[in-house]
Amino acid sequence: MSTIQRQIVWNVCFSVILAIGVTATFIVVFPISEWAELWNRHFMDIPFVIFIPAFSIAVGIFLGLISGIYWRRQLQHVEHSLHQLEQGRQTPQYKKTSISEMQSIAVQIERIGRQMSEQAKLSQRLATEKVEDQEARIQEIIEQERNRLARELHDSVSQQLFAASMMMSAINTTKQETSEDDREAKQLKMVEEMIHQSQLEMRALLLHLRPVALKNKTLQEGIEELLIELSQKVTMEIRWKVEEFPLDKGIEDHLFRILQESVSNTLRHSKANKLEVLLIRRDELVILRIVDDGIGFEVDKMNAGSYGMQNMHERAVEVGGTLKVVSVKSKGTRLEVKVPVMINGDGVND
């Protein structure tokens, strides 16, 4: 039975009982001589004995309908609020009512909603902290493993490649002096070039495995230190122009990582003889440009399949900048990053 039906039945019963009670009281106070008078007396051309119960039933139905609709709305609102809580949503603001019990229910629902919301926020925060802690531990383990692998490669493979390169260089020098078979000399020269290329790839791999951090150095200091160390280990001609200007640590770190990734790619793939690095600031833009004279590549294919290119692009975007790569086959590659520098009202970097 619905709320409206129940209210109608209750109000009809109450009205009929009330009508019977009022009628009995009237008869006791004003006795009638004959019961037939109840039938003979009319009200609005309706016998009194019929009018009273009919009027009572009509009033009961009317009052039951009104009260049933009211209570149905109240219960529907409570049901809606509970459904919102079940779905994990914020409960709607309950309108103030004169019925203290309903107001109390509304306050309890609102309190439960706040508690559930706080519990959800706490659970989410704990889950986030747990994931971040796990990621930090994983990154630490990865960093330690990369450093270990880099040390082992440097102490074994890199040293062996260096020794092999020196031996091949000495052998080729001897062959040139004795002027023996030109074919054998070419083959030895090819082996020397392969070893040299392997050295470049090994140095690029070490740079990728164990990237130098800026720590307490500025971006300019880090770039110069990296390029000076690199120029001492490779035969490639390296030139750079680095201007001095302050930058936020976040921008410095991202630009330095982009430079490391770009240099690593140059050593491994470009077969370049020259490398130029430019770091300048013009107006409100910081420009980092890396140019080589290598074999070049198809930019569209590299962007689609290269993790390194994607990583550099994401780093540039994270600091609000743009990354543009132009490469021509047999001409070389130019990578350029532009990062806007935000200036506050005092003319100082934000």
Quick summary:
This protein is of the alpha+beta class.
Shape descriptor: rod-shaped
Per DSSP, what share of the residues sits in E-state strands of 2 or more residues?
5-15%
Rg result = 44 Å
Largest sheet data? 5 strands, mixed
Give the low-pLDDT segments: none
| Percent helix range | 55-70%
Give the helices and strands as they follow along the chain: HHEEHHHHEHEEHHEE
Oligomer: single chain
Q: Can you offer a commentary on this structure?
A:
The structure is a single chain. The protein has a 5-stranded mixed sheet. It is of the alpha+beta class. The chain starts with a helix and ends in a 10-residue tail after the last strand. α4 runs antiparallel to α5 (182-209). The mean pLDDT is 76. β1 and β2 form a beta hairpin. The radius of gyration is 44 Å and the shape is rod-shaped. The chain has helices at 3-29, 36-40, 48-86, 100-178, 182-209, 219-231, 249-270, 299-305, 307-318; strands at 42-43, 46-47, 237-242, 274-282, 285-292, 322-328, 332-340.
